[in-house]
Amino acid sequence: MSSLSKDVFSVFFGAILGTYLRVQLSVVVYGHLLQSNQTLAVAMIVTLLVNVLGSFLLGALWAVHQRKGVSGLVWRFWGIGMLGAFTTFSAYALDAFIALQWGLWGVLSVYMIGSIVLSVIACTIGYRTLAAVQRTPVA
């Protein structure tokens, strides 16, 4: 199998796993939160949780990958494939558009700013956490 084929299959199978995990998380969170009629708010909470968690994990994995702690193939499977499919920027955009369409300016502002800021912060924390752990000698 060629190197390109391995890369493509790695991303592909990672994406299958990421999609599966995203759906499972959504089902669990929706099951707990859909007791109210706030379905847009519930969808936004799920998307926000997924994006922040995915950003944290992607930052942590990038820290490991940069220090050659994981191979390119592992990076493509977990980082590009799995976490790329797990996080949901398109769902974020749709949620924001619906809030905009409905004139929910406060919800829209908190959601948009919170999603971007919290995801960048989570990515930074994930990166710094794993970068620090990797510098610590193992006894």
- Counting H and I runs of at least 4 residues, what is the number of helices? 5
Determine the oligomeric state from the structure: single chain
Main sheet record: none
Number of domains: 1
Mean pLDDT: 84
Query: Spans with pLDDT under 50 lasting ≥5 residues?
Result: none
Q: Outline of this structure?
A:
With 139 residues, this protein is an all-alpha fold. Helix content is 85%, strand content 0%. The chain has one domain (3-135).
Any overview of this molecule?
This protein is mostly helical and 139 residues long. It has one domain. It is 85% helix and 0% strand. It has five helices and no strands. Helix 2 runs antiparallel to helix 3 and helix 2 packs antiparallel against helix 4.
